[in-house]
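Sequence only, no structure available. Ideas?
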Amino acid sequence: MSNAANESTAAARSGRPHDAAHTNAYPAAVVRQLSALTAKFYAREAVSFSATRQAPWHGWEKAWEVISEQRPAFVAAPLTVLDLGCGNLRFERFLAERTRGPIAVRALDNCAALAEDGTVSLPERFTLEFHEADLVEHLLDSPTAPLVNPDTCDIAVTFGLMHHLPAFALRARALRELLSALRPGGFAIASFWQFLNDPRLAAKAEAATVAGRAEHNLLPFQENDFLLGWQEAEHVYRFCHHTPDAEIDALLASAQQALTQAGPAAPAFHELARFSADGKQGNLNRYVVLQRD
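Reply:
I predicted one. Tokens follow.
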């Protein structure tokens, strides 16, 4: 890897605090350009990507154990679930294998083809309300408008989304969306991709970033921001952000602050668990499990 990639990897592993000056690092036009690259990637590679994303993540099992320990009744109770960036709905299939009660799912993603691929295997006790939504556009244009009605969900999750949001402020707003959707006592689960922990992925990210920046005339990226390609496909890039623990702390604090500023009755939350899972070394995703007070 180059010095730049080595420095980025070292910074991620050092856990040094996130630089608040970078919370809005890119102009909105650049954020939209990076988001458009990711959207084009999924539109073009939806079939091949979904084919490699069928098995549940190992971290889901551990997160479900945390929730089940707190709420054993969730196994059979009616539940309302928010899935922000639902992809091909494999988390819903994971839930179907571990629950018995009726489940109403509110799923949002900007790639309808991925969601359609996952609907066929959901049991009849699942009610799916899918919305094709450009989450980046919503978070940019309507930062205070909720995507779903507040105080309506028992579980709110986001997997494989945070690393595609090209600004700290957008990631904090997405967390706030999850938390504001919860009923009192509800649970939120968020994953943060830490791909720089894998030297092979880090090298691929460095090479793809150099090529993609040149191809799309992009200015230098901020710390921990990269482009990644896909298999042997040419001219296909997705924006990806590596999120170290220090930034996760800052994101949680920012989300709670935004909720508190909304009014005296704003919901508060506490962290139940934080752990690493997934990948051969079990360290590619960092999970946070939160509960609303």
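The first helix runs from residue 3 to 14.
Hope that gets you unstuck.
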